[in-house]
Amino acid sequence: MVDSPVPPPASCPIGWQPQALAPVFWGVRSLGPADGAPVDLRIFFPSLDGAVESAPLLEGCGRYPLILFAHGHCQQDTDHYLRWFLIPAFLARSGYVVVVPRLAGNAGGNNPSVPGHPDEATLDAVLTWARSGWEHADVLLPPPATGVIGHSFGAMLGARFAVGRPVSAYAGLSGGWQDWFGAEPFPLPLLDLPTLLMWGLSFDLFSQLTEAQWQAMHRPRHRVVFDEGEHWDYLSAQIDLPCRPGSGSCSEIAAATADLVTMFFARYLPPELATNLAVEVPSSLVPPDLDLTPEQEFFAGGFLGGFHRLGSHPECGVTVSSDSERLLANRRTRETHSLDHPCAWVSKIAARNRWPVGARPAGYHWCDMCFPSRADG
């Protein structure tokens, strides 16, 4: 079993590929149709430069998975896609390329459960552009190294989009699951891939799954419930939203969510050379302590810590469930349950894509732990 990262090629200016347990800085570009993009969007990526808006992409250190972020509906907030930066930035620091497009249907209040939702085509166009039209498309791992994350209507749209497409992991933040009324089938039990769902118990009523709905979902599945969480708490309280009357009582939810989402994708959709993550990120998704070199520590300022800060705030109760076993908040566990072990998931993906027995997708070094080399013959 491979439990350490693969050293990057000589073309890499640092001694490691960016990953969730050894981050770098991040950069972002705002692009649109004038730049060849299908819609207005932001694209986040790893960088060694702290200038962000002008920071160059870190290349030559191994390829990165692609993650699509789908925003929801915030009435009167015409540029709502621009509000989302903490989660995409954390993921970019961890070795991902994250695209956050403007979704006109969601922005206009179109429920993603209705047939012919226009944003499904938009996500398809953005995915195609990122993999073939973006000037740095060659830094991306090929399909199925694609993740999807969304909030509210975006979580609903993202789940619908992920069904039947080559997507390897999905995360939904307060999707309006109890507001799914259209003719399209309810997507969550159809997702045969690792899934992370979050919601709050305060005034986040339409986002809460019943126990029957939760049990109907495939494994591995992860659930995070914030006792005082409200629908918009994944965005910092400092962000003024016309659709948010006020922030919830727990100010750490946004940072804790960024931590947990980063750990989730690290475990199930790691960068090309990060062969350690599937075993070093626990099934609880609680961030482990970072063991960094002095050079790596330079890039790690302000990274992680949000989930652990929940423990110092009585108003920030949280319950994290992994598969069917409930794990207490802030308990440092490194248990790996057989049903949600990454190799079990890889085997399911291999069967679904009809790979030959013992085969592994070319270039996916992190699969070495699940497909050990065999003697010829």
From TrEMBL:
Gene3D superfamilies: alpha/beta hydrolase (3.40.50.1820). It comes from the Bacteria. InterPro entries: AB_hydrolase_fold (IPR029058). This is Uncharacterized protein. It comes from Cellulomonas humilata.
